[in-house]
Design a protein that fits this description.
Shape: globular
Largest sheet: 7 strands, mixed
Structural class: mainly beta
Number of helices: 0
Radius of gyration: 13 Å
Distance between the termini: 40 Å
Number of strands: 11
Strand content: over 45%
Order of helices and strands: EEEEEEEEEEE
Length: 125
Amino acid sequence: QVQLVESGGGLVQAGGSLRLSCAASGRTFSSYHMGWFRQAPGKEREFVAAISRSGSNKYYTDSAKGRFTISRDNAKNTVYLQMNSLKPEDTAVYYCAAEVSNTWTPARQVQYDYWGQGTQVTVSS
């Protein structure tokens, strides 16, 4: 069993930055791939970014490319999402997720085995 706890959300003005963190416990962190997803009010949850076990491979949705950076520190059992140049349309609850499978499709939500409770990000215009 893996427990994931997100933090770092909040209220920020457009153009500002936030860094989300997701702390994992319960299993060897380096054994699973990690992803960030978000769900805006009235919308489906969507993929934002993902990172492989070692951190060598990173994936982003088009709207995140150039603004968001995913990273991980396996020694600290933590994955991060640095978000810069935030826009009002980035407002959502952000979730981290973990997958232990060797066959991993980064943006495919149903493959992820464990999810955090989410952290709210609100970007004001």
